[in-house]
Amino acid sequence: MDPSTFSETIQQHQGILHKLCRLYRDSREDREDLFQEMIYQLWKSYPSFAGNARISTWIYRVALNTALADFRRKQPRITYTDSLPDIPDNGGQATSVQQDQLFAALRQLSDAEKAIIALYLEDMSYQEIADIIGIDENYVGVKLNRIKSKIKNILKL
C-alpha cells in the first residue's frame, strides 16, 4: 500500500469524516479523537479494500462503524465546567448558527437515523445509502421521510 495514495484518498474524503465526527460527538476534543480513530481504522483496513465498491462507500462504512463502535464502547462522560464550550468564530454568520442548530437536532436522532441522514446530506443516492447501511432501497426513502419529519419537529419548523 502506498502511503501517499492513502493520504490523498483521506484528503479527498475528509469532509464526510469531519461531518460524522460532528454528528456523533459534542466536544471538539471528542471529535478530534473520533477523527483520529477513523483514520486509524481506515489505515488498518486499507489493505483489505478489494475495490468491489467505490472508495467513498468503503470510507463511509468504516467511518460509520468506527463512530458507532466507539460510541458503544465508551460510557458517556459527564463533565461540568464554569465556562461555555468554544464555538468557532465565523464572523457572526447566520449560516453558522443554522448549522449549529441543525447539528444539535441531528445529535438527537438515533445512531441509525444519524447514519442515514449523514449519507443523504452527502448527496448519496438511495441505492448507495442502502448499500452502505445494509437496508432495502425503498426503506431508505421511508426512513428519510420519517427522519425529516422528526428534524422538523425538533427544530419546530
Q: Please count the beta strands (DSSP E, at least 2 residues each).
A: 0
Distance between the termini: 49 Å
Order of helices and strands: HHHHHHH
Label the overall shape: globular
Task: Detail the poorly predicted runs.
Answer: none
Describe the structure.
There is one protein chain. This protein has 7 helices and no strands. With 157 residues, the protein is mainly alpha-helical. Helix 6 crosses helix 7.
What is this structure, in a nutshell?
This protein is 70% helix and 0% strand.
Q: Secondary-structure map with pairings?
A:
Elements: H1 3-24, H2 28-45, H3 55-73, H4 94-106, H5 111-121, H6 126-133, H7 137-155
Helix pairs in contact: 1-2, 1-3, 1-5, 2-3, 3-6, 5-7, 6-7
List descriptors.
mainly alpha; 7 helices; single chain; 157 residues
